[in-house]
Amino acid sequence: MKLGPNLHRIGNDIVAAYLVVTDDGITVIDAGLAGHWRDLQQELAALGRPLTDIRGVVLTHGDTDHIGFAERLRRETGVPVYVHAADEARARGTKRYKPAPGSAGSMRPGPTARFLAYSVRKQGWRTTYLTDVVPVADGDVLGLPGSPRIIGLPGHSPGSVAIHVPEAKALFVGDALTTRNVLSGKAGLQPSPFTDDPAQALDVLDKLTQLSDVGWVLPGHGTPWNGNVSTLANEVRSRT
Hints:
By secondary structure, this protein is of the alpha/beta class. The protein is built from seven helices and 13 strands.
């Protein structure tokens, strides 16, 4: 789905991944679930672009609902997959996450059932972990289409990042925040569930408020947000 110039989404408000599309190639931001591979192919076909136009995958963190088709894409095309060094073990499947007790928040049967059903439909049960990654760090600017810049946002996981792409006026935030709690159905800017360190996750959001060239804040779960990024941190904190 086209969101704006140079910017496309695959998946939906339950689980999403994104494409930064330029004349020089395509950067994939997050890789959803394994079944989003078909969505990726359909979006590329609609764009008239081959799989070989993809230059790399940048992960906001190493959770299984964000690494989905990354290893398959890496094996088939040889593109690099980038993840923060602190989440490398997570993306490789050698270290499992340990969310803080109670961080899931309230759960409602309907939204939780829809999340689980969608995860099954998109083959969330057949995770293929990464066997090769390129570690990144806070402040890195990657040599990929759109020149994505890494902003370290530890909290949801040790290696969670936001990815700023000024060319697309986009800020990809992964699970640093959400606009839809997939377990409760609650909508609007808010902290993400299943967070390792909820207090830290809120503290680091101030790093985002001084950014320019942001028209889109794009979470891994929920609708895109087009508000003023200078108010983002306080709005998320107000929903705790």
